[in-house]
């Protein structure tokens, strides 16, 4: 685990403890179960088969890039994504490092008809229930942040709450460790994400996805993340049978994120 990732995870555990003091888990669970059933994030990303499906991300800042977008209106951006071909929306909810908010996700969910992914550093079951209560349809689970038993517990909990999961790995070792858990405990709930960002150097390389494809059991549920900037990048991935991508920083840096998404899709 890189130093920044370790720092984020430790801070996240502190955040969870504070949240549990404000709202105990039992009360949060009841609130979560009182929300409408989630939209099907998994189906939105895998149907039609072998067709480009984009998760378009709403993100104000990042530890590596600082503030990415000053004029930040998460709902307007999400609506523009929906109008320009996104299959789903990813919303950063981490406050300290990405200047996100869980309230942004709730507002986006009310404004669009697409499924919405909570993108955060989930290290505790409380956060999965919290995501459901906020209106999320899916949660990101970063393998490098989790022990194998905890990953399994979170997959079970998410499935019980009818949330899809995007299990993200950054390196080959993590991929080999988690790949046999994809589809557990039920099929058609979990997608596998390959993040092209090197956690040690924080640089991105699109070739990382294709370099590890030989260890991916099912490319139909594979999402390539980070470093995707052009329609040519999309075409290059498609040549290798990768048709699902998550794009954030490139779109957020453009004057018109919706138009940029349309151009990326081509």
Describe it.
- Helix content is 42%, strand content 17%.
- The chain is of the alpha/beta class and 266 residues long.
- It has a single domain, classed as Aldolase class I (TIM Barrel).
- The protein has an eight-stranded parallel barrel, surrounded by five helices.
- It starts with a helix and ends with a helix.
- The mean pLDDT is 96.
What's the name of the CATH homologous superfamily?
Aldolase class I
What is the total number of structural domains?
1
Radius of gyration: 17 Å
The CATH topology turns out to be: TIM Barrel
Q: What is the strand tally?
A: 10
Structural class computed from helices and strand pairing = alpha/beta
Average of pLDDT? 96
Helical segment count: 12
β-sheet strand percentage? 15-25%
Run of helices and strands: HHHEEEHEHEHEHEHEHEHEHH
Assign a percent range to the helix content.
40-55%
Distance between the termini: 36 Å
Strand order of the largest sheet: 1-4-5-6-7-8-9-10
Shape call:
globular
Unreliable segments of 5+ consecutive residues: none
CATH class: Alpha Beta
Which CATH architecture? Alpha-Beta Barrel
What profile does the largest beta sheet have? 8 strands, parallel, barrel
């Amino acid at each position: 685990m890189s130093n920044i990732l370790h720092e984020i995870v430790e801070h996240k555990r502190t955040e969870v403890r504070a949240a549990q003091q404000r709202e105990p888990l039992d009360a949060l669970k009841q609130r979560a179960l009182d929300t409408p059933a989630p939209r099907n994030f998994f189906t939105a990303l895998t149907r039609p088969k072998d067709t480009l499906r984009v998760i378009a991300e709403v993100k104000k800042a990042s530890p590596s890039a600082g503030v990415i977008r000053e004029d930040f209106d998460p709902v307007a951006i999400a609506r523009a994504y929906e109008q320009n071909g996104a299959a789903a929306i990813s919303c950063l909810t981490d406050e300290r490092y990405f200047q996100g908010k869980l309230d942004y996700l709730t507002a986006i969910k009310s404004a669009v008809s697409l499924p919405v992914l909570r993108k955060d550093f989930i290290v505790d079951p409380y956060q999965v229930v919290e995501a459901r209560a906020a209106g999320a349809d899916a949660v990101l689970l970063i393998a490098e942040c989790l022990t194998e038993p905890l990953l399994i517990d979170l997959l079970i909990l998410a499935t019980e709450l009818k949330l899809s999961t995007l299990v993200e790995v950054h390196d080959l070792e993590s991929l080999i460790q988690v790949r046999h858990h994809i589809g557990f405990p039920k099929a058609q709930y979990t997608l596998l994400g390959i993040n092209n960002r090197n956690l040690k150097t924080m640089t991105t390389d699109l070739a990382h996805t294709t370099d590890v494809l030989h260890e991916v059991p099912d490319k139909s549920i594979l999402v390539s993340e980070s470093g995707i900037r052009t329609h040519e990048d999309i075409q290059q991935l498609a040549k290798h049978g990768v048709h699902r991508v998550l794009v954030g920083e490139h779109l957020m840096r453009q004057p018109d994120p919706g138009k940029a998404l349309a151009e990326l899709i081509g």
